[in-house]
């Protein structure tokens, strides 16, 4: 990839990093470790040659793919390797303000080291800011000192630092002062959305969706929250035993959540009250899906578990019998009786009904870290940096599209498939995989595409873009202080965003 060097190459050629770039590289690595640890895996061999410094920020490669219960699969060892690497990258000295954090990472006692999520939280300041529309009394929910001024108009701020001696621009993904108001980051001066409201949340937003004018979000701090889309007022807040990293299923009667540590929980969507909870396994991978009368989840030990949606009792389970490193289920968006399974080792398969009748199995070239998407007669899977379309009836590969690192789960329509990676948003012909159009977005951490009311939204490192989904023409762009951590979600003319600054933002589109 043009403009990409490894951290090892930069250190060998240019010497230690200055404090600012060092912090930004550390933040990117910590974010990657937090994400992989959240799904029960570890890196296992973090070194300077495994960190790519790209125009979109640092990327971590070379994951060993070991589960955190495997021999040598302790997440605390990744944290120790992180501390060693960043100390080396900083010249082996005190590393300035990072020194205390790095000393904790290098604690000889693994039990006293911070988790990757803890490190990530320290390196990405979170603005404690909330504004609500005029006339809304949210005083019980919003401390007066946390209210922000009205957003000024004008060009938004962009933050780019040149990596000293590195020869390329490294985009910052953090705000240097936790008190900076989001309202200071307006659009780029073109006609675009205004900020309707915004509110801080505990932890980074991991999932976001809208149902009947209520926004439901989950965060890295094990928080589940329901917020009114028009006002930003919290309707209720609940907590889970562990992080929810994958999209919950929301219906009129229940909100089903799969926690990474193995709990499946049903909440009342109107109150947040727990209806039931079931332990499905040691680790849950991917998102829960509705399949017949069951809520289905996949586990790290390759079990597919069906749970009764009313009572929460386990009703059936299925396993291929051969270890594949974990399994994630998916169902077709256009109906059907097949359950599509993606495995961490690159295997894709389909089974029929709760008896687990196998229909087909195909092994792809690269590991799979995300669930499939199925529509019509094709199932779409991200394998490594490639989007692959397979026949739903036979598993035969119909087409492949080569992308770049961090390709996201596709959004599928009848005619087009949309996906993002570190460089661009792509629209592909659903039948052939031929590229219809692409638009550069330059995301340090790509957010999945969102299609809301006839507009395609994609997040860049510090910008939200809105595109015509058919032609790819850009409607507008809106400046952000940091990147998105979940796909945008919409209700009417309100678009909801979850940012790495630990806040929810509502735009008037």
Automatic annotation (TrEMBL):
Signal peptide location: none
InterPro entries tied to this protein: Kinase-like_dom_sf (IPR011009), PQQ_b-propeller_rpt (IPR018391), PQQ_rpt_dom (IPR002372), Quinoprotein_ADH-like_sf (IPR011047), WD40/YVTN_repeat-like_dom_sf (IPR015943)
Pfam family, one: PQQ_2
Domain of life: Bacteria
Region ranges (Disordered): 133-156
Domain Pyrrolo-quinoline quinone repeat: 248-368, 386-508
Protein name: Pyrrolo-quinoline quinone repeat domain-containing protein
């Amino acid at each position: 990839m043009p403009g990409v060097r490894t951290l090892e190459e930069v250190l060998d050629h240019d010497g230690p990093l200055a404090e600012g770039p060092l912090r930004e590289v550390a933040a990117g690595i910590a974010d990657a470790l937090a994400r992989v640890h959240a799904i029960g895996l570890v890196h296992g061999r973090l070194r300077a040659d495994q960190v790519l410094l790209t125009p979109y920020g640092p990327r971590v490669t070379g994951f060993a793919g070991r589960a955190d219960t495997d021999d040598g699969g302790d997440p605390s060892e990744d944290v120790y390797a992180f501390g060693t690497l960043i100390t080396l990258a900083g010249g082996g000295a005190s590393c300035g303000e990072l020194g205390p954090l790095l000393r904790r990472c290098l604690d000889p006692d693994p039990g006293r080291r911070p988790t990757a999520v803890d490190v990530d939280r320290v390196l990405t300041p979170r603005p404690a800011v909330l504004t609500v529309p005029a006339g809304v009394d949210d005083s019980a929910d919003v401390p007066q000192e946390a209210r922000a001024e009205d957003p000024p108009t004008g060009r938004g701020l962009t933050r780019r630092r040149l990596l000293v001696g590195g020869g390329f621009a490294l985009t910052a993904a953090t705000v240097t002062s936790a008190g900076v108001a989001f309202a200071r980051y307006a659009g780029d001066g073109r006609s675009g959305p205004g900020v309707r409201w915004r509110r801080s949340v505990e932890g980074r937003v991991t999932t976001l969706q809208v149902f009947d004018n209520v926004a439901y979000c989950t965060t890295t701090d094990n928080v589940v929250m329901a917020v009114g889309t028009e006002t930003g007022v919290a309707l209720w807040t609940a907590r889970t035993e562990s992080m929810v990293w994958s999209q919950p299923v929301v219906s009129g009667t229940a909100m089903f959540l799969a926690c990474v540590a193995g709990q499946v929980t049903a909440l009342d969507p109107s109150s947040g009250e727990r209806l039931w909870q079931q332990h499905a396994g040691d680790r849950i991978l991917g998102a829960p899906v509705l399949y017949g009368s069951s809520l289905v989840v996949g586990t790290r030990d390759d079990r597919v578990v069906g749970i009764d949606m009313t009572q929460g009792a386990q009703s059936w389970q299925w396993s291929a019998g051969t270890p594949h490193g974990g399994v994630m289920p998916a169902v077709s968006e256009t109906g059907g009786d097949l359950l599509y399974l993606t495995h961490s080792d690159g295997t894709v398969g389909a089974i029929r009904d709760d008896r687990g009748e196998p229909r087909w199995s195909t092994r792809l070239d690269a590991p799979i870290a995300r669930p499939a998407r199925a529509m019509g007669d094709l199932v779409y899977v991200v394998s490594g940096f490639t989007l692959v379309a397979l026949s739903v009836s036979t598993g035969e590969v119909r087409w492949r599209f080569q992308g770049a690192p961090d390709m996201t789960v596709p959004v599928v329509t009848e005619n087009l498939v949309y996906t993002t990676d570190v460089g661009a948003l792509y629209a592909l012909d659903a039948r052939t995989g031929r590229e219809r159009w692409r638009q550069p977005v330059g995301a340090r951490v790509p957010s999945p595409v969102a299609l809301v009311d006839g507009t395609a939204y994609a997040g860049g490192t510090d910008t939200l873009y809105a595109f015509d989904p058919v032609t790819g023409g850009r409607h507008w762009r809106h400046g952000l202080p940091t990147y998105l951590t979940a796909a945008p979600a919409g209700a009417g003319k309100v678009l909801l965003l979850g940012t790495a600054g630990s806040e929810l933002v509502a735009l008037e589109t």
